[in-house]
Write a structure and sequence with these properties.
alpha/beta, binds nicotinamide-adenine-dinucleotide, 23 strands, 16 helices
Length: about 500
């Protein structure tokens, strides 16, 4: 059995706590490795190393820091297939989807190569007689990030690339379910020229997270995962004086107007609802057709498409649409919610409950499900299912559809499919959700824009990547300077504007 490690001070370090978690191959259901779960002492050891290394890194000029990221991009491209394979083996997603996971992280690394421009600061010449005023952005020091299982390459890179470009040291606590790719990324950053101790990976569970939240040296915490944990980390981190940003769960609605191209809408729903087995925070999990005629026609188009979906292991070739879910517990939770949907009166139009794959009976595969006539009081509507289950909630008109999405507690992403520009514009203006697609089902912003939801999908003031990342990972310091006269007339006691 492979025993994974932490990555501390540029070397693989065995776990000391004696506690481990199983890492599965979700396609076969086998345990393929054990990952160590760090205790507070192991975390403190990494923090001390980071604190020693960080001032030298912050003093390295920003262009040289950016060159490390440039080289890292080359190495990611060199090792793309290897990274994708390791990612699929632990996560279960298809190989092209795993390469996409790496690619969307790589794009943020590319954006961060522009750090020198982002860190330039501001300057006012002659703010007063002989007085200049300037603001600079300084690194925070030791920063940390806690990431989810569903994007084990992309989300760590969304955090560590800007943190490190800004001159911070970064401690990554990845998901214990798929920790191999984060370890590989840390090795590649060092191969790219990053000094030891600037990017470290400390594996673990709640104990390691709590060690981060309570360590006085750690200045900021980034988190992506489920909403209850996001709320806990935001509350605890802020109470301990840290800068915190937390991104949580989702229930993304796609509104289908009567004038929409229904073939296009159905194709979009299939990809956005079932891709990656629905384990995406930007997956569409609720379809909202407007009017019964639209709903009937949409369901008619969806059913044959769903029945054609090919579910299988990542090793079965490029035509597999989606793979297993991540653990047996995830599968059980999804099937439990499907049962609740049936019990609470929703119409199960496509029933994937008996799905089984020959030769992979112990894998965590879940067949595709489609519900119709879901109502807002049902568990399958209120809760995030995070599986290949699409719920249809019928709305009688546009206002009802809009209200439905607005009243849901989550506000990560949403989409509207329509041919009417006026409706699309009204939707984009009024909806209380962070990322909006117009005839685009998964509106994930590119690296140079920012990513973040509203309501219970995000906690904190700043989004991920884009210009917000440079604000999150730096502090502003403003200097007022007068040379060379100094104060000749004695002290001044009144607070007064510049002359
Ligand atoms: P999770 O909340 O179970 O775990 C996320 C991280 O928190 C992991 O590193 C885990 O070790 C740690 N953790 C788990 N339980 C903890 C506890 N009790 N105390 C402290 N730390 C704990 O989430 P997950 O299952 O890995 O990921 C799926 C979730 O992430 C979904 O809800 C999904 O919507 C969300 N997600 C959100 C975004 C976004 O940008 N909004 C992106 C991706 C995933």
């Amino acid at each position: 059995m492979q025993e994974l490690t932490h990555y501390i001070n540029g070397t693989h370090v065995k776990g000391q706590s004696g506690r481990f978690a199983d890492v599965y191959n979700p396609a076969t259901g086998e345990v393929q490795a054990k990952v160590p779960l760090a205790n507070a002492e192991e975390m403190a050891f990494a923090v001390d190393i980071a604190a020693d290394a960080q001032p030298g890194w912050a003093a390295t000029n920003p262009q040289r820091r950016a060159r490390v990221l440039m080289k890292f991009v080359d190495l990611l491209n060199r090792d793309m297939d290897k990274l994708a394979e390791a990612l699929s083996r632990e996560h279960g997603k298809t190989l092209p989807d795993a390469a996409g996971d790496v690619q969307r992280g790589l794009e943020v690394v590319e954006y961060c190569i522009g750090a020198p421009q982002m860190l330039k600061g501001e300057f006012t010449d002659s703010a007063g007689p002989g007085i200049d005023m300037y603001s600079m952005r300084q690194a925070l020091g030791v920063t940390a990030g806690i990431t989810p299982f569903n994007f084990p390459a992309m989300i760590p890179m969304w955090m560590f690339a800007p943190a490190i470009a800004c001159g911070n040291a970064f401690i990554l606590k990845p998901s214990e379910r798929d920790p191999s790719v984060p370890l590989m990324l840390a090795e590649l950053m060092e191969e790219a020229g990053l000094p030891k101790g600037i990017l470290q990976v400390v594996n673990g569970d709640k104990e390691a997270v709590d060690a981060i939240l309570h360590h006085p040296t750690i200045q900021s915490v980034g988190f992506v995962g489920s909403t209850p944990i996001a709320e806990y980390i935001y509350g605890t981190g802020c109470a301990n004086g840290k800068r915190v940003q937390c991104f949580g769960g989702a229930k993304n609605h796609m509104i289908v107007m009567p004038d929409a191209d229904l073939d296009q809408a159905a194709d979009a729903l299939i990809g956005a609802g079932y891709g990656a087995a629905g384990e995406r925070c930007m997956a569409i999990s609720v379809a909202v057709p407007v009017g019964d005629a639209t709903a009937d026609a949409l369901i008619e188009k969806l059913v044959p498409r769903i029945e054609k979906l090919k579910v299988g292991p990542y090793t079965a070739g490029d035509d597999v649409d989606y793979g297993p879910v991540v653990t047996a517990a995830a599968k059980e939770k999804i099937l439990g919610l499907v049962q609740a949907g049936v019990d609470q009166g929703a119409e199960l139009v496509v029933d994937g409950r008996d799905f089984s794959l020959q030769g992979y009976e112990d894998g965590f595969f879940v067949g595709p499900h489609l519900f119709d006539k879901v109502t807002p009081d049902m568990d399958i509507y209120t809760q995030e299912i995070f599986g290949p289950v699409l719920s249809t909630v019928r709305a009688q008109n546009y206002e009802e559809a809009l209200k439905l999405a607005m009243d849901h507690e989550y506000g990560n992403g949403t989409a509207i499919f329509t041919r009417d520009g006026d409706t699309a514009r009204d939707f984009a203006n009024r909806i209380n959700i962070g990322m909006v697609g117009i005839n685009v089902p998964i509106p994930v912003p590119l690296a140079y824009h920012t990513f973040g939801g509203w309501k219970k999908s995000a906690f904190g003031d700043l989004n991920q990547h884009g210009p917000d990342a440079f604000k999150f990972y730096t502090r502003t310091k403003t200097i007022t300077s007068r040379w060379p006269s100094g104060i000749r007339e004695g002290g001044e006691f009144n607070f007064k504007p510049m002359d």
